[in-house]
User: Which sequence fits this backbone?
DNA sequence: TTGACAACTGTACTTTTGTTCAATAGTCAA
DNA sequence: TTGACTATTGAACAAAAGTACAGTTGTCAA
C-alpha cells in the first residue's frame, strides 16, 4: 500500500510519521501530473481556512488505483459530506492520533468510506446497535466447536493455502494437516476445503 | 430464502406475487410469537396513516435469521431513516414494481441496507457517480479475457462446485470442465480452484 | 478458402486432497 | 488413576484435481 501525502507546504507531521512511516509527502504542484501508476491512498491536507474547491484542481480525483482521503485541519460533518460528494473516500482530522489514521487507511484501502463517528450517528441514528446485533449472527464465527489448532488450519485453508503450505507454516507434517482437516470437515459438515473456505469467508451463495 | 409478508389485513398484492411468488402473507397477530427458526426476509407493510410505532410492538426486531424491510404505502426519506433506526434493513414503496422488490430482496438478503435513491442522493450527494466509477475496478469482473463458457465454469467453481457437478450442470464431460479450468488458470494466473474462488468472491487476504 | 479461435472430448499421467487403520504422547477433569 | 480430548504422525489407499498430447467440430472474419 502506497501512501502519498499532499500538502501546500510539504512537511511530515509526527502523527503521520507514526501512522504511515513509508508515506511520501509532496506539494500540490507535484501531484498535478502523476503517471497514475500503482495503488494506494492519497492523503490530501486541507489547512485552516482552505476550502475543498481550493485544492480540487490539483486532484485528478480518479487516479487509477489511488483513493483519496481529506486531512482537514478543521473537520466537520459538512466538509466530510462534501469530500464524499467529490469522490473522496473519507475525511478526518489532520492531527488525528496515529491509531486513528491507521484505522482510516485500513478501511479505505479495503474500499470502505471513512465518515467519522458523529456523522455516522447522525445519518444512521441509533441503528448502530441494531446493526451490531445483526452483524453478530452473520459474522458469527463459522468455526464453532473447533479446537485452537483446527481453527488455525481452517483459517489458512480459507485463505487459500495448500496442505503443504499449512504444514510448513505451522511446522507440522502434512499428514497432520490432513488429520485436522478431516476433523474439521467432520465437525463443520463442509464437504471439502473449498466449501470450508466459502463458509469462513462468509460468501453468500 | 424465506419471505414473510406481514400485513394488517393479509392479502397478496399482484406485485408482491410477481416478485416473491413463494412468500407467505400473515397478519400481525400471527407473527408475535414465531419460533424464530429459519432465515429470510420479513416484509412489514405500513398502511397509509399508520406509523412505525403502530406495528413495532408486533415485531421482535431481532428474529434470528430474519431481516426486516418496511413496505410503506406512503414512503418518505424520514420514514426510511426511522426504519433503519429501529433495526430494519430498509424501506420501500408498497406498490413498487416486482423488479424493484426483487432487487431489494437481493440486497437485503446479502446484508445490505435498502435506502432508496432519493435518500441516498441526499445523504451522499452526488458521490454516486464517483462511487460507481470506483466500484467498477474494485468489483471489476475478475474474469477479464475469459470466454463466455469459461466464465460460467469459473463462477460455478467460485460457488464451490466440483468438476463433476459443473459437468452435470452444463451438460458437458468432466474432461471438458478440466480443459476450461486449465485455460482459466492459465489466463488468470490462479493456482487452483480455491485461489480462483477467492479472487472471484473478492476475498481480501 | 484459409486461419484463428471457441467448444468439446478421449487417453493417460502426475499431483493434491481426503480417508482408513493404527499408534504415541500430553492435558485435564471426574 | 482413568477416561476423554487434543495434537501428532506413519503407511496405504481412494478420489479429485489438474496437466500433457491429440483430435473433431463449428463459427467468423480476412
Assistant:
Amino acid at each position: 500500500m502506497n501512501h502519498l501525502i499532499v500538502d501546500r507546504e510539504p512537511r511530515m507531521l509526527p502523527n503521520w510519521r507514526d501512522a504511515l512511516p513509508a508515506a511520501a509527502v509532496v506539494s500540490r504542484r507535484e501531484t498535478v501530473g502523476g503517471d497514475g501508476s500503482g495503488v494506494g491512498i492519497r492523503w490530501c491536507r486541507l489547512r485552516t481556512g482552505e476550502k475543498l474547491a481550493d485544492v480540487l484542481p490539483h486532484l485528478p480525483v480518479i487516479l487509477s488505483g489511488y483513493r483519496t482521503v481529506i486531512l482537514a485541519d478543521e473537520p466537520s460533518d459538512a466538509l466530510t459530506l462534501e469530500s464524499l460528494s467529490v469522490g473522496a473516500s473519507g475525511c478526518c482530522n489532520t492531527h488525528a492520533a496515529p491509531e486513528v489514521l491507521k484505522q482510516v487507511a485500513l478501511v479505505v484501502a479495503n474500499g470502505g468510506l471513512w465518515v467519522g463517528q458523529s456523522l455516522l450517528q447522525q445519518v444512521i441514528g441509533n441503528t448502530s446497535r441494531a446493526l451490531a446485533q445483526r452483524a453478530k449472527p452473520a459474522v458469527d464465527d463459522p468455526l464453532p466447536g473447533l479446537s485452537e489448532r483446527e481453527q488455525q488450519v481452517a483459517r489458512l485453508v480459507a485463505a487459500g493455502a495448500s496442505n503443504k503450505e499449512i504444514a510448513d507454516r505451522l511446522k507440522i507434517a502434512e499428514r497432520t494437516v490432513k488429520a485436522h482437516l478431516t476433523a474439521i470437515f467432520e465437525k463443520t459438515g463442509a464437504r471439502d476445503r473449498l466449501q470450508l473456505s466459502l463458509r469462513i469467508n462468509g460468501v453468500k451463495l
The longest strand of chain A covers residues 39-46. The two ends of chain A are 31 Å apart (CA to CA).
